Description:
Elements: H1 2-21, E1 26-27, E2 33-35, E3 44-48, E4 51-53, E5 61-66, E6 69-71, E7 76-77, E8 79-84, E9 87-89, E10 94-95, E11 99-103, E12 106-108, E13 113-114, E14 118-122, E15 125-127, E16 131-132, E17 136-138, E18 143-145, E19 150-151, E20 155-157, E21 172-175, E22 180-181, E23 185-187, E24 192-196, E25 200-201, E26 204-205, E27 209-212
Parallel strand pairs: 1-3, 2-4, 3-5, 4-6, 5-8, 6-9, 7-10, 8-11, 9-12, 10-13, 11-14, 12-15, 13-16, 14-17, 15-18, 16-19, 17-20, 18-21, 19-22, 20-23, 21-24, 22-25, 23-26, 24-27
Amino acid sequence: xxxxxxxxxxxxxxxxxxxxxxxxxxxxxxxxxxxxxxxxxxxxxxxxxxxxxxxxxxxxxxxxxxxxxxxxxxxxxxxxxxxxxxxxxxxxxxxxxxxxxxxxxxxxxxxxxxxxxxxxxxxxxxxxxxxxxxxxxxxxxxxxxxxxxxxxxxxxxxxxxxxxxxxxxxxxxxxxxxxxxxxxxxxxxxxxxxxxxxxxxxxxxxxxxxxxxxxxxxxxx
Length: 221
């Protein structure tokens, strides 16, 4: 019996290594996944665990339910999605598809490229000097479009669903110096919209633009 168990363990380890060498998928229920630097993988998914992509690694769709997703500088992904967890992309990262989370922040490092939409429900979005091909959206989170960032789509802040007690915190939408938002900015709830005088934005619906030049205004709530 012991010899059989050892043989099965060895066989599983060997098949895992083979899948890694051939760029195969990696799937788990409980546990984290680590994509090593310079390697190519297929899809990575887990239910309860984080996923980390080393610098220079290339992977397919990255998905988890309860866990964060983090990519170091120059990581390449087809898409990134989590329900309960943050998504952090290092500098010069590239994601060809969507980047989305429900409960967690999204951070996009400098000089990164996103080929589709970027969204969260409850979590802030930070974009540092990057290029977003699609739309950027949230419900309850702040959005910061950093200096020299370029969003080819628009920005949407949706209205929360369901009943909630007390005064609602207003999301703050900050568009930094020389940033560009080409599409429409649509706000279906009350927000603070603060735009640098050098930034360029599309049509605004549902909010009043507050312009700044030097210092970012203090929050009103």
